[in-house]
């Protein structure tokens, strides 16, 4: 066996009596609980750190770091590794797991593992080249920006920029270990490593800010280390995550850890691998995904690009506050579900799109497709339930939450309310695109990229218009994002319907995803009560006691909504449990 620990335990527990054995990816939703636990910890730690950061460093510095520096970081990381990560999801390491046992000292990675390692080394080299180019671009642009060069407005800007770029490259060095852990569904190990890294980042940011505050006794907006603190935190995160993966993956691998950083040509074998490092098919697929990741980067980071170019530092601060706090549901719930569903859908694509059709009955194609349809239906209903709750409670309580966070500007409450409307669309689009990108052929991916270019152009033009011409600030950027997400959802819906029609079966139906009428009624009734009480006591809106009482009312009404879900959505709840256990064949939503 190439791996020990979790993967071995999962393999040992597999039943020998089932007709269609469940691949490891069907346990991905069980492993997603570790990613959810990680995201809860990350968001709580980040929330606490950001509150302290805004208090010590000020909202403007927080906005510059969260928009400009994070845009730089995400550009290096996303463009270097995202396309390769998506391509490597389609490599089935289990197909090479039946090799004869070898002693640990003489072992080397098996063929499929070595192919993953070879491919995962490419982002490290690509990231180094990209880091140099981006530094030159940022440095040349900052030379024309008095804000970036002024020691008073942005001290240590150039040094912070360099540290951020180096930290991005250090983080890329974890890629071979990360993709191996994901290939073997080691979500618990990933959660542990990332949790350690996040803790180190929070500690480094806060310690650096306190150091600057202590030695200068400065006000929040004048802390000289306010930008350098974010850079120090990112470097601490990068070093910690590499060290953690090295430490824990060493106990999972049957070969020395240094072999994960040694490329080796793979000889032609019975598995059909070419005499090359990664193989022509994987290389071609990776190139397609890299092109797609470029488009996706503009789609996901387009708002930050527009803000960095056209927004003031105060508008950046508002946007950073809203995107960090408003995205808590997306990070805690949507992202782990998207990661788990991508793993399941990728293996479904590998089965359905297999070229060896003579050895596999067509019935297996339809069975795999039905499994995918069931997963799509359950996730769709989950997103709609969460969306109903966010739409009612999130929009109505946004001004109160902003006020309790000491953000009394009306623009903050408006932007936070808009983000609550945006979140359901983000979650719905996330798992739909996970399916589309997992099952699409190379030619289809090229066509998808073409459509994404069109969506990108529409979004960027609209975002610049609402920010630069209409002056709608962060709320305008979020509304432009909502239109963008709507276009992407429509495209995914059309693609999915055509994919299932090709197999001769019906695709997921919207009617099966809709919440029970009683649940919808409870949400609407709760919203009406909140609006009525807020209107009746509008003169007390700024009272802390009244705000706390409104939060207590919201908690009671939220409990009523959850109770209605428990009473009227029992088939759906059972489906979620079966999905978590990997029993896809018995999932029903109504």
List the helices and strands and how they pair.
Layout (H helix, E strand, L loop, with lengths): L5 H7 L15 H30 L1 H30 L22 H10 L1 H21 L3 H4 L7 H16 L2 H9 L3 H30 L9 H24 L30 H31 L2 H14 L1 H25 L9 H43 L5 H30 L2 H28 L3 H30 L7 H4 L3 H20 L7 H25 L1 H12 L9
Describe this structure as you would to a colleague.
The protein is mainly α and 590 residues long. 75% of the residues lie in helices and 0% in strands. It has 21 helices and no strands. It is globular.
SSE succession: HHHHHHHHHHHHHHHHHHHHH
* Percent range of helical residues: over 70%
Strands, count: 0
Radius of gyration: 25 Å
Count the DSSP helices.
21
N/C terminus separation: 41 Å
What would you call the shape? globular
Task: Please summarize the sheet with the most strands.
Answer: none
Overall mean pLDDT stands at 76
Task: Report strand %.
Answer: under 5%
């Amino acid at each position: 066996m190439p791996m020990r620990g979790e993967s071995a335990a999962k393999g040992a527990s597999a039943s020998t009596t089932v007709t269609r054995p469940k691949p490891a990816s069907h346990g991905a939703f069980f492993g997603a609980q570790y990613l959810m636990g990680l995201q809860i910890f990350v968001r709580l730690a980040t929330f606490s750190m950001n509150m302290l950061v805004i208090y010590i460093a000020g909202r403007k510095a927080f906005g510059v770091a969260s928009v400009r520096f994070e845009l730089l970081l995400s550009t290096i990381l996303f463009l270097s590794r995202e396309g390769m990560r998506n391509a490597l999801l389609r490599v089935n390491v289990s197909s090479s797991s039946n090799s004869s046992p070898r002693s640990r000292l003489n072992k080397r990675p098996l063929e499929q593992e070595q192919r993953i390692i070879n491919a995962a080394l490419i982002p490290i080299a690509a990231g180094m080249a990209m880091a140099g180019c981006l530094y030159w671009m940022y440095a040349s642009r900052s030379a024309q920006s008095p804000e970036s060069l002024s020691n008073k407005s942005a001290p240590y800007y150039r040094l912070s920029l360099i540290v951020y770029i180096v930290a991005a490259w250090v983080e890329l060095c974890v890629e071979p270990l990360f993709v191996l852990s994901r290939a073997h569904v080691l979500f618990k190990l990933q959660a542990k490593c990332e949790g350690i890294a996040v803790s180190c980042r929070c500690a480094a940011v806060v310690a650096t800010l306190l150091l600057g505050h202590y030695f200068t006794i400065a006000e929040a907006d004048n802390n000289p280390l306010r930008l350098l603190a974010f850079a120090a935190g990112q470097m601490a995160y990068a070093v910690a995550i590499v060290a953690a993966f090295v430490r824990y993956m060493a106990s999972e691998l049957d070969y020395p850890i240094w072999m994960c950083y040694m490329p080796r040509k793979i000889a032609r074998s019975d598995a059909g691998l070419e005499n090359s490092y990664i193989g022509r098919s994987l290389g071609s697929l990776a190139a397609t995904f890299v092109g797609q990741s470029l488009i996706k980067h503009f789609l996901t980071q387009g708002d930050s690009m527009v803000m960095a170019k056209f927004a003031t530092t105060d508008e950046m601060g508002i946007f950073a506050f809203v995107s960090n706090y408003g995205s808590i549901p997306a990070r805690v719930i949507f992202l782990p579900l998207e990661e788990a569903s991508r793993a399941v859908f990728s293996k479904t694509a590998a089965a359905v799109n297999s070229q060896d059709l003579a050895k596999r009955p067509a019935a297996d194609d339809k069975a795999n497709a039905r499994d995918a349809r069931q997963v799509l239906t359950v996730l769709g209903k989950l997103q709609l339930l969460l969306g109903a709750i966010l739409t009612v409670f999130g929009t109505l309580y946004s001004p109160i939450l902003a006020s309790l966070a000491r953000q009394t500007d009306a623009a903050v409450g408006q932007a936070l309310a808009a983000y609550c409307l945006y979140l359901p669309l983000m979650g719905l689009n996330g798992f739909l695109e996970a399916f589309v990108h997992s099952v699409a052929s190379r030619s289809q991916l090229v066509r998808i990229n073409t459509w994404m270019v069109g969506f990108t152009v529409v979004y960027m033009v609209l975002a610049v218009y609402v920010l630069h011409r209409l002056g709608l600030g962060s709320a305008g950027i979020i509304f432009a994002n909502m239109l963008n997400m709507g276009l992407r959802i429509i495209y995914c819906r059309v693609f999915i319907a055509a994919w299932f029609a090709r197999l001769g079966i019906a695709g997921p139906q919207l009617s099966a995803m809709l919440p029970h009428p009683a649940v919808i009624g409870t949400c609407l009734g709760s919203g009406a009560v909140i609006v009525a009480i807020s209107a009746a006591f509008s003169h007390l809106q700024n009272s802390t006691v009244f705000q706390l009482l409104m939060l207590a009312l919201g908690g009671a009404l939220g409990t009523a909504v959850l109770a209605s879900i428990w009473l009227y959505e029992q088939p759906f709840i059972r489906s979620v449990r079966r999905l978590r256990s990997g029993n896809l064949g018995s999932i029903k939503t109504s």
